[in-house]
Design a protein that fits this description.
With 344 residues, the protein is of the alpha+beta class. It contains ten helices and eleven strands. The strands form three sheets. Strands 1, 2, 3, 4, 5 and 6 form a six-stranded antiparallel sheet that branches. Strands 7-9-10 form a three-stranded antiparallel sheet. Helix 4 crosses helix 8, helix 5 crosses helix 6 and helix 5 (241-252) packs across helix 8 (284-305). 44% of the residues are buried.
């Protein structure tokens, strides 16, 4: 999930995008509009067959954060990862972020190399291997970022699970009385079950939206879907790694046999690459619940403020279903089970 889009953003046409790619990056090719909630994105296909993504950000975007993202991606390029991450392309002045002046406004421009693969949302059902593969992929990226530092990553972000209690004031936006009570009850447990525990765990820069069906790229191998890339680092933040694992478990639950299955196998895959302590593993189910709560509360709030924004609601119903299913289990017992199974 990304933060809410700017209210004021001039939209660029495909011919304009082609001109921007030529002028600032010396890339001559055709432009095709791609999806994007905040940035306006274009696929730039050049004559020799290479493909790129031109990202045009709102004029009020934080330039320091955009530069940080580019440096983070450049950092990942230096790592030997088994999945692809976007490669940032410098402009004609050797900068990662260009400024295009249009009228009274200046729009930040960035260019990324295209990664082949389909979005994970084409996969209807995740088998156990894909669930583990998701965990491995998220862990690989987060481990590669262990030695990445930049002041801009130490920021306040709504989608950093540490800040989930800030959504308490929006609980009234949930119209269904039973679901609102469920959200109130579970949110009230998080300070004790999760947030207090986090204080003893180290913090690193993480992707913070790994597992999102619109951020993971997949290809088929022997008729089996496997992750081959991860994109959209706009929510990267300095926080606790276990929260990133919880996010991956939350998204995986939407297409797994059950939330418990998703949490178990994504965690198993994560632990094949990265190490978490027994205490961190014990709170994974609560980190997952916290992400579901953030999803449903924000969706309820945006249903009122942005009634025509269907994208803002895409994960709400699956998250409610997962919440209502998992509470039938012993949540603390599941965390203990994860710790016993994955720590030797």
């Amino acid at each position: 999930m990304t933060s809410e889009a700017s209210k004021e953003f001039r939209r660029f046409s495909e011919p304009e995008a082609e001109e921007l790619a030529r002028r600032y990056f010396h890339l001559i090719g055709s432009a095709t509009v791609l999806n994007g909630e905040i940035d306006q994105n274009f696929l730039i296909s050049v004559d020799r067959g290479d493909k790129y993504v031109l990202k045009i950000s709102p004029q009020n975007s934080d330039r320091n954060w955009l530069t940080c993202q580019a440096e983070l991606l450049d950092h990942l390029q230096s790592k030997q990862l088994n999945i692809a991450t976007p490669k940032p392309i410098r402009d004609i002045n050797k900068n990662y972020v260009s400024e295009h002046v249009s009228g009274e406004h200046a729009f930040p421009l960035r260019m990324l190399a295209w990664i082949e693969g389909g979005l994970l949302d084409v996969v209807e059902h995740y088998d156990e291997q894909l669930l583990q593969n998701l965990g491995q992929s998220v862990a690989a990226v987060d481990m590669a970022l262990r030695d990445f530092t930049h002041p801009a990553t130490d920021r306040h972000l709504r989608w950093d699970t540490r800040n989930v209690m800030e959504l308490e004031s929006s609980l009234a936006a949930i119209n269904n009385r039973e679901r609102r009570k469920l959200a109130v009850d579970l949110l009230g447990l998080l300070p004790q079950k999760l947030l207090t525990q986090l204080k003893q765990f180290p913090r690193f820069v993480i992707h913070n939206d790994g597992g999102n069906q619109h951020n993971m790229l997949v290809t088929k191998h022997d008729k089996k879907w496997r992750v081959n890339g991860i994109i959209d680092f706009g929510d990267a933040v300095l926080t606790h790694r276990v929260l990133g694992l919880g996010i991956a478990c939350a998204y995986a639950s939407f297409s797994a046999k059950s939330p418990k299955t998703a949490i178990s196998f994504v965690t198993r895959g994560y632990m094949k690459v990265a190490t978490l302590s027994r205490g961190e593993l014990a709170v994974v189910p609560w980190a997952t619940i916290a992400r579901w709560l953030a999803t449903v509360i924000v969706a309820a709030r945006r249903a009122t403020s942005e009634p025509d924004n269907s994208y803002a609601q895409v994960s709400a119903e699956p998250a409610w279903s997962a919440l209502e299913t998992l509470i039938e289990h012993d949540i603390d017992g599941l965390g203990f089970e994860l710790a016993e199974r994955n720590v030797t």
